């Protein structure tokens, strides 16, 4: 049986009829053709499929598209605003935060989640915040530097880490 | 990996979910989905009906009711980890939540889902046992309370009946001069507890142990309280040597898990070491 869903991705609302077993990552990649969200391990380990859903970083390989009905989603394609790179993208560029780039979209979205909750993290807090993302090229140091770059830049420009309207994290306390 | 086809149901209230469960007794309940969906993708389970509890916002809360902290079944690990109420009153529960998986998993996974799944290497069971929490289960006829000590009945098995939904976890706020700690040896790849030990220690005026509750996860098929450890701690001094001796039977009488990562002997050793560390850390915080 098909289920009608409405999902807002990077500010655009999409309506589709989907099979219940369709995973969110396949909905993004194959139905919406947003292939910036990668599938790495497909077992909730590597973080390549990380997106921001309702203000929270989640692994889209472990969610059903039907669970995202009504959600606000930010993928890597939505990070740049009006042709200007998001500070986290600029950070990865300036600090050589990637080699092959496969982990980078998930890495950047996990990083903006971290910066939304902790705008000025220590190296250790950055490593802890990126615990759910694996990179097999860089050894992580340049990624940590990239996140620190983004933290400085966001503070300078007084920008929210997660661009609005994706910033609304559900009330949690 | 794609799960086998299933019928998807999305109730908006507990009452509606219970009706579905009565009508479809073979249905699987989906909360955060971070245990069920990986199993469905691997086709370890292929339920014909999935009832998604995720829209029942009434189960997504953390609140204080007098000397009890009530955590709704759909509270995510992140909610527990970041809750001011939890940090103030039962900090060990937040400490435990913060050690689960990774950030993304904690944003999605729920306390009710984790407890009902009863993975032998999950983190919450140790804390729930040491805090002597109560699980509230609901079916179409009403609610009942299951003490933590009776909740975990075996490997991936709980005292929940087929027609029941775990709706709340009720955690008593420890009284007296007490301290608590959760210490974990995490599997380096999966993040699951190879061994996890939660301890709640109450001290008397002389700084001796007035009461001890210890929960151990990852070691046996089911989380447990090592009775002999708790008994020998009562009235004891809380110095390293005494605690180390008290922790000796931490895995006694347990059919210790064994896998490629840790032999039974090594796991039993870790159980002793982490019991000692958790008790000492809890005692330190109680002073």
The CATH architecture of the largest domain in chain B: 2-Layer Sandwich
Described by strand count, sense and barrel closure, the largest sheet of chain B is: 5 strands, antiparallel
Anisotropy-based shape of chain A: globular
Beta-strand share of residues of chain A: 15-25%
- Helix fraction bin of chain A: 25-40%
- CATH architecture descriptor text of the largest domain in chain A: Roll
Averaging pLDDT over every residue of chain B, what do you get? 97
- How is the biggest beta sheet of chain A arranged? 5 strands, mixed
* Elements of chain A, N to C (H/E): EEHEEEHHHH
Mean pLDDT of chain A: 95
For this structure, the quaternary state is: heterodimer
Q: In terms of per-residue confidence, which ranges of chain B show pLDDT below 50 for 5 or more consecutive residues?
A: none
> Which consecutive residue ranges of chain A, at least 5 long each, have pLDDT under 50?
none
CATH homologous group name of the largest domain in chain A: Beta-grasp domain
- The secondary-structure class of chain B comes to alpha+beta
Q: Radius of gyration of chain A, Cα only, in angstroms?
A: 15 Å
Please, could you describe this protein's structure?
- The complex is a heterodimer of chains A (173) and B (287).
- Chain A has 173 residues and is an alpha+beta fold.
- Chain A folds into two domains: 2-77, Beta-grasp domain (Ubiquitin-like (UB roll)); 87-157, [2Fe-2S]-binding domain (DNA polymerase, domain 1, Orthogonal Bundle).
- Chain A is 31% helix and 16% strand.
- Chain A has helices spanning 24-31, 87-94, 104-117, 123-129, 141-157; strands at residues 2-9, 12-19, 50-53, 56-59, 72-74.
- In chain A, strands 2-1-5-3-4 form a five-stranded mixed beta sheet, with helices on one face.
- In chain A, helix 2 crosses helix 5 and helix 3 (104-117) crosses helix 5 (141-157).
- Chain A is globular, with a radius of gyration of 15 Å.
- The mean pLDDT of chain A is 95.
- Chain B is an alpha+beta fold.
- Chain B has three domains: 7-55, 2-Layer Sandwich (Uridine Diphospho-n-acetylenolpyruvylglucosamine Reductase, domain 2); 57-172, Uridine Diphospho-n-acetylenolpyruvylglucosamine Reductase, domain 3, CATH 3.30.465.10; 178-286, 2-Layer Sandwich (Enolase-like, domain 1), CATH 3.30.390.
- Chain B is 34% helix and 25% strand.
- Chain B has twelve helices and 13 strands.
- Chain B has helices spanning 14-23, 36-41, 77-82, 84-89, 91-98, 103-108, 111-117, 124-130, 148-151, 227-233, 240-246, 264-286, and strands at 7-9, 28-30, 49-52, 62-65, 68-72, 134-139, 142-147, 152-154, 157-158, 165-172, 178-186, 193-203, 209-217.
- A five-stranded antiparallel beta sheet of chain B has the order 4-5-10-6-7. In chain B, strands 1-3-2 form a three-stranded parallel beta sheet, with helices on one face.
- In chain B, a hairpin with a 2-residue loop joins strand 4 (62-65) and strand 5.
- The longest helix of chain B is centred in the C-terminal third of the chain and has 23 residues, at 264-286.
- Chain A binds chain B through residues 1, 3, 19-21, 23, 26, 42-45, 47, 50, 56-59, 62-64, 66-67, 110, 113-114, 129, 131-133, 172-173, and chain B through 1-8, 10, 30, 33-34, 37-38, 40-41, 50, 52, 54, 62, 76, 78-79, 82-85, 101-105, 107-108, 189-191.
């Amino acid at each position: 049986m098909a289920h009608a869903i409405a999902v807002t991705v990077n500010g655009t609302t999409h309506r589709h009829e989907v099979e219940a077993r369709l995973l969110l990552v396949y909905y993004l990649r194959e139905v919406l053709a947003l292939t910036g969200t990668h599938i790495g391990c497909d077992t909730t380990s590597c973080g390549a499929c990380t997106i921001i859903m309702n203000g929270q970083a989640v692994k889209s390989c472990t969610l059903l598209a039907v669970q995202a009905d009504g959600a606000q989603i930010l993928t890597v394609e939505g990070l740049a605003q009006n042709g200007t790179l998001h500070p986290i993208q600029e950070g990865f560029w300036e600090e050589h935060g990637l080699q092959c780039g496969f982990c980078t979209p998930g890495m950047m979205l996990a990083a903006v989640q971290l910066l939304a909750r902790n705008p000025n993290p220590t190296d250790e807090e950055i490593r802890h915040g990126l615990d759910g993302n694996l990179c097999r090229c860089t050894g992580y140091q340049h990624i940590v530097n990239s996140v620190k770059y983004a933290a400085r830049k966001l503070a300078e420009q007084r920008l929210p880490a997660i661009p609005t309207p994706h910033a609304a994290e559900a009330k949690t306390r | 990996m794609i799960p086998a086809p299933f019928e998807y149901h999305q109730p908006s209230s507990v009452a509606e979910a219970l009706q579905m469960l009565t009508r479809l007794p073979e249905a699987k309940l989906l909360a955060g989905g971070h245990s069920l969906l990986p199993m469905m993708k691997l086709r370890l389970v292929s339920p014909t009906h999935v009832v998604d509890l995720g829209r029942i916002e009434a189960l997504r809360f953390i609140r204080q009711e007098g000397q009890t902290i009530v955590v709704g079944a759909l509270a995510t690990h992140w909610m527990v980890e970041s809750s001011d109420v939890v940090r103030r009153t039962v900090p060990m529960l937040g400490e435990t939540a913060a050690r689960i998986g990774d950030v993304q998993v904690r944003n999605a996974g729920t306390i009710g889902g984790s407890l009902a799944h009863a993975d032998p290497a999950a983190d919450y069971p140790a804390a729930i046992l040491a805090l002597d929490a109560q699980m509230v289960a609901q079916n179409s006829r009403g609610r009942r309370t299951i003490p933590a000590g009776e909740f975990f009945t075996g490997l991936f098995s709980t005292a929940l009946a087929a027609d029941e939904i775990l709706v709340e976890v009720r955690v008593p706020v420890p009284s007296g001069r007490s301290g608590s700690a959760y210490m974990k040896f995490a599997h380096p790849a999966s993040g699951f507890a190879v061994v996890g030990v939660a301890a709640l220690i109450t001290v008397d005026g002389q700084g001796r142990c007035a009461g001890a509750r210890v929960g151990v996860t990852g070691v046996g098929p089911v989380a447990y309280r090592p009775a002999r450890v708790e008994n020998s701690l009562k009235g004891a001094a809380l110095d390293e040597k005494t605690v180390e001796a008290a922790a000796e039977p931490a895995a006694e009488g347990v059919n210790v898990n064994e896998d490629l990562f840790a032999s039974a002997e090594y796991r039993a050793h870790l159980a002793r070491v982490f019991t000692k560390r958790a008790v000492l850390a809890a005692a330190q915080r109680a002073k």
